[in-house]
Specification:
Blueprint: H1 4-27, H2 42-73, H3 86-94, H4 110-113, H5 116-134, H6 139-142, H7 157-180
Helix pairs in contact: 1-5, 1-7, 2-5, 2-7
């Protein structure tokens, strides 16, 4: 049985990527050209999102086996399945954007490392791998696997997948704003 909440969150991720990719094609935006001097290009943004998914999946190959027994104890307790937009909260509170940790920063000259087509393929591949890893978990257990992330208010696994979608949409909105100006 698949985890319905996470399946919905993954569907949202795929849908918003498809919508954004249509927008890129419609507007003929140059993927690797920066819209402004200190703003990431669409290619750099996708590389960042790819690294985010990949690192989260890698973390979970180790973390899930350790966290599942603890989560099992709490499986009859209530748990949230959505999360607030922490990126919006952070920028309102601090009057600046949240900085990305170095392990998910896009490399300089990413266009020389990977083609646009390969990058889009890789982010989908990593997302599918993460999806197959986590959607098999019982939702009651996934709802109690928590991550030590105080900025995100210690989200559970289901909320973390929702947060990935929120994070991606946040970047897609920024790209639209910067490329239209």
């Amino acid at each position: 049985m698949q985890n319905e909440s996470m399946t919905k969150h993954f569907k949202k991720i795929y849908d918003q990527r498809e919508t954004f990719n249509h927008l890129i094609a419609k507007n003929h935006w140059q993927i690797w050209d920066r819209p402004q001097i200190n703003k990431w290009s669409i290619g750099e943004t996708y590389y960042h999102l790819y690294l985010m998914i990949k690192r989260f999946r890698q973390l979970n190959t180790v973390y899930l086996p350790l966290a599942k027994p603890i989560a099992y104890i709490w499986k009859h307790s209530l748990y949230p399945i959505q999360i607030n937009n922490i990126y919006q909260e952070y920028s309102q509170k601090h009057n600046k954007a949240m900085r990305a940790p170095s392990i998910i920063m896009p490399p300089k000259h990413g266009e020389q490392l990977i083609s646009t087509r390969a990058l889009f393929k890789e982010i989908t591949h990593e997302t599918k791998k993460l999806e197959s890893m986590v959607t098999k978990l019982n939702e009651r257990i996934a709802g109690h696997i928590r991550y030590p992330d105080p900025i995100a208010h210690y989200p559970n696994l289901i909320q973390s997948i929702d947060l990935i979608g929120i994070h991606e949409q946040h970047h897609f909105n920024l790209c639209q704003k910067y490329y239209r100006n």
